[in-house]
Design goal:
With 103 residues, this protein is mainly α. The chain has one domain. Helix content is 74%, strand content 0%. The chain has 4 helices and no strands. It is elongated.
């Protein structure tokens, strides 16, 4: 149980770091490409792949938080399933600084 909590916290930390990097990249891109339409909340209005990656990272963080809440209440089958799905989604996210992340 403690190992699962530790792994989940580590995965959440990685997802939060990825999210922060993606947000910074989006801001940098908006600064370097001022002609790109940007919505009032600072997001590109076109629904770019970068925006989709940001939303995916946010969903992964929410799922990890939900799995942690379930674990605090007692790890059950639903919590394990949610955690497995979330960790699978996290491993599918691009890593910052890689060619895949900048594609």
């Amino acid at each position: 149980m403690q190992r699962i909590v530790l792994q989940t916290n580590l995965a959440r930390d990685k997802a939060e770091a990825l999210l922060q990097g993606l947000i910074e990249l989006r801001a940098e891109t908006a600064h370097k490409l001022p002609g790109v339409p940007v919505g009032s909340d600072g997001t590109a209005s076109s629904g770019s792949p970068l925006d989709r990656a940001i939303e995916t990272a946010r969903r992964v963080i929410c799922q990890l938080n939900r799995a942690m809440e379930m674990a605090e209440l007692g790890l059950n089958d639903e919590a394990c399933e949610t955690l497995d799905e979330t960790l699978d989604a996290l491993t599918a996210l691009p890593k910052l600084g890689t060619r895949e992340a900048s594609a």
